[in-house]
Amino acid sequence: MEALDIARWQFGIVTVYHFLMVPLTIGLGLLVAVLQSAWHRTGREEYLRATKFWGKLFLINFIMGVATGIVQEFQFGMAWSQYSRFVGDVFGAPLAMESLLAFFVESTFLGLWIFGWKKLPARIHLACLWIAVCGSVVSAYFILVANSWMQHPVGVKMIDGYPHMVDAWAVFTNNTALVAFFHTITGALAVAGAFLLGISWYHLWRRRRDGIDTVDARGRVIVGESATIPGRDKRDHSVWIKSLRIGAVVAMIAFAGSAVSGDMSGKLMFQQQPMKMAAAEAACHDGTSFSILSIGDLSSRDCSKVVAVMEIPGLLSFLAHNDFTTDIKGVNTLVPEYQAKYGTTVPDNPIYGDRAGQPINYVPVMPVTYWGFRMMIGFGGLAALASAVALFATRKGTVPRPRWIMRLALVGILAPFGANAAGWIFTEMGRQPFVVAPNPSMSGVDQVFMFTAAAVSPGVSAGEMIFSLAALGTVYAVLLVVEVFLLTKYIRGGVPSAMPELGHGRADGTDDAGSGPGGKADGDDVLAFAY
Amino acid sequence: MDFLPTLWFFLIAVLWTGYLFLEGFDLGVGMLMKVFARDEKERRLLLNTVGPVWDGNEVWLITAGGATFAAFPFWYASLFSSLYVPLVFVLLALIFRAVAFEYRGKVHHDTWRRVWDWAIGIGSFTAAFGIGAMLALTTTGLPLDANGDRVGGPFAWFTWYAVLGGVALVAFCLLQAAAFLALKTDGAVRLRARRLVGRWLPLGLLPLAVWAVAVALANGKWFSWVLLVLAVAAALLAWTANRRDLEGRSFLFLGAFLLLGSATIFSGVFPVVLPSTLDSAWNLTVANASSSPYTLGLMSVVAAVGVPLVLAYQAWTYWIFRKRISTAHLPEPHDFAPAVGHGDAVGHGDAVVSGNAASAAAGKD
Asked: What is the pTM for the complete model shown?
């Protein structure tokens, strides 16, 4: 394999991995802030319990996002130096702003929130969390501005072969970026919603199965209590049922929001990257029908072997133009157009090395775009449907008994993660063979594009890339196991795992936990939180 | 000389120096977890001295990287791609270190904690060494061709300058961390940390001083020497302050030594940002590596708003957590009995059985 291919695999793997943590961080952060606000306003202890429990899971996940985020920033310079040189004038700015205006805020105020329990006045402590959460949302905005510029370069002029930023307003209000931002935040909320729903369902199911909660003749829950087991008292029930219902409602609203923003995003893409949408549809010929299922050899990029099995007439036109009759250009129409505009062979430029002069394939890998697009929508819709069912099923205060439904609820946590990952893979793979897509929708700057083949670092060998891919891949795999292990441990632990004062927290080894620490410091001096 | 690129050279120097000043001590504390702390209580104490602030400190590195990308894309691209292999190690180190901070106390088990202690120790060492080496090579140069790409293979960067820079930063971090612990803790740790500073200060600062002298010699600017003399004076003041048990001043004068040493180095190389050791015509300079005036102007506005804000709220964080802590302040580590057990170990619909099972599980741990 060449350095380019390895670099692409590496980029895909570290980015998708990072994006397992990011949506949970954003979505769960928002929900924890809402829960703590509810506690602040009502003073009801179940909200405090919920804040502590979900906050703990939030932190276990947050740190993985931080750790893998540094790789994201460094890899542009390390593996994609030619790309960095080409786009630095415009692409670097949102990245730098992200760290200066958002990530600093997020990290600093989250530190204050974690260690500030009881140390800060309650109101300020809550404000710290909100500020940190806003930081993560703003952070997402800046990153999406950077990414959207690769999808739809605006606000620049070509000078000496390099794009120079001439209109920052255009870059930061790029319609692609604004829609992607909306889509990403709703996607993050869908992840958090399903997370709350699945875990709460599990706990409620355990309470029923262990005979703590029972139901009366009309199917209403009779909340019980188990004095011997911390975390299974009456308030515990309300933590779970509230979390479940919040999660379900959030997931449904989030899906509605992501459907709207996804539709907007699709309409932009038909104008801005028509080939991406054609490949998403496996649409070889011009037409108006949306493919439900196409079979055959999607990877035959000339479309000769693709057979549409099921189609909905008119839907594709509707998705692109809001009517049912306008023909959408298929792959076979678009390829000659692209060739006429951007050339048929790789330019004879030293940065392309051996690839100079070779024919360019403008069709993205169709099985990836086709199935990526469908998995994104399918998993998202599944999570929303499951949430609606869950709301109905829990209307009497507890969950049904069958074990298989509980298992579905737990597995369902993964659905929005799958939708997010599939969406990113679709949008990034669909951009190929460009790393900066051409922008046909604006006059004058259609020549701002760069082939992925030219973006990789010319000075870095395939051996170095293999080394880093193996090293990062191994470490990421190990850490995923560790994260899931810890999340599972704390989920099983229930609320007392985050609030030891509720449980039978036991001291370590020989230290006498009961008595004060030697008279020097009284109880108030003990840190409210410590590692 | 163009004003905006020069301003941004200065700002990036400030960001790197800010990073070294702040994360300097928390990297050092990470290394001291393995070589200074004597027992579990002391290790936890060390961890908690930096607990609330280390993540915010690390963002200085990310901002320095991002600002280099935005303001000097050619510098960023050449430096990061040339140092591909060492930077992979730095990334792995930073990943492990961050995760270890958060995960170490999450499971109540000796082996678990020992593994994460090593992750923090080795991670902190590798990050400090790698970043020191990278900064040293920024000042002394890399074998770059006309396009700014490294020639000579994955290890072409490996020179004694790289080693010097790595050692310099590791030694400084250890010293700064000891000064920080003397300032931040109480009890036995405070005394031992203070003694450590007194004993090792001259040796700990020597490699950084040698690096600064090397840059000053190579560039022969008079103000480099002035800055260097001031740096040595700051080191002496730090030493005397430590002998007189003035921990705050000792910490700040060590910081001043870093600022002045860093100023010596950055001002010495200016206006070159990354020299090519093959041909000085291929040097990257503030003029030929920078972004356009429009981008730099935009970034300047953002920095003018953002940097003071960051300094203000980070200062506030340090103020909130200003109290000394000692092992007596640490809450007891706790484990918890799972509210729900594993899989099918518990009988159906029987609260009593499940209660017993959970207490049994609690007793076992």
From this structure: 0.91
